[in-house]
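FIELD: query
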Amino acid sequence: MLEERLGDGTVQIDISEPVVETSQSQRMVSLENAVSEVLAIVDMKEPPPGTPLVAQFVGTPLVESNQVLETLEPTLVQHHVHAYYSVAESDENRHIITVLDGRPNPKPRPWWPNLVLFILTVWSVLSFGAFYEGGIEGSDEFVLWKGWKFASSLLLILGAHELGHYIAAHYHKVDVTLPYFIPFPNRIGTMGAFIQLREPMKNRNVLFDVGVAGPLAGLAFAIPILIFGLATSDIHIAEATDEFSREGNSLLYYGLKYTVFGKFLPDGNEDVLLNSVAYAGWVGVLVTAINLIPIGQLDGGHVMYSLVGRHARRLYWPLMGIMLYLTIYVTVPWAIFTFLLLILGRLYAVPLNDVTPLSPRRRILGITTLIIFVLIFVPNPFQGLGG
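FIELD: result
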């Protein structure tokens, strides 16, 4: 991946028989009575039997939005159902409570696949680090342990990213899997990592906290690692006949190089020759930037949906247009990622309560996070030069 996705799996819902056995009519009466305490019902739809949809109630709210599902919860548990609370697209004064069969009931998962994937990723990243270190030294000799600087730096960044998601999820009592690291023989030795959401988020505040915690935790390690790596790297002047690849600049990276070296780089064929630690830091920032693209199941998509709700979907085609432009006119490697976004970019993690807005402090942090995305995004990550 150059992506870490949260919640890209299917939420597990137990649709076994209700805890309290009642007829369909009795259940509908009970649900309607409960909903009428939080919603002035103007319309009710009852689907035909055999579908997961139990009922849909439309009306105007009688209580604060953050109290609606909490008030309904005892009745929902009694009838072994769950509900989504949203606003009608045609009229924002009309609120909708959609009741579905089943309750979130994540089953235990074995931990050994996570461990095996992590071990393979360590080997893959070590291998790339060894090749990178050999390139810096001008040696064709492959010595696996020499990749430890790159591997430890990058895995620390990715691990912090995943741990941020994991801690935030458990703080809010949301069930998620352990991280799945993905080994891959590419220019960093991995496709990143992801954790899988196993039950719906309660509201936008929870969605925001879990989504934003990963990128911010990863950057808290990636930026210091990058600064240290730059400070211990040398300036390199490439010969006209040299064939080499130059890492792309973001606004942040451009500024950090100026801060460390006192001049803007690259300058012609003069640029910093990143050591393995600096390269790991640069990769960590790049991976975070890709995760913060504000679309679909990416962390940035969670942040954007938390900020503006279903209106986030309007950004799909403009952002896909930008990605297609980057693929066609800037660098072909964006093609794979753009293709994945074409397939998965429209899928958003929708919280159970999609009405209560984000808290003011989270809104400020969300806007700040989007500004960070602009500062760290790299339009042309790998540039082949010379030769």
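FIELD: remark
Residues 17-27+35-101 form one domain.
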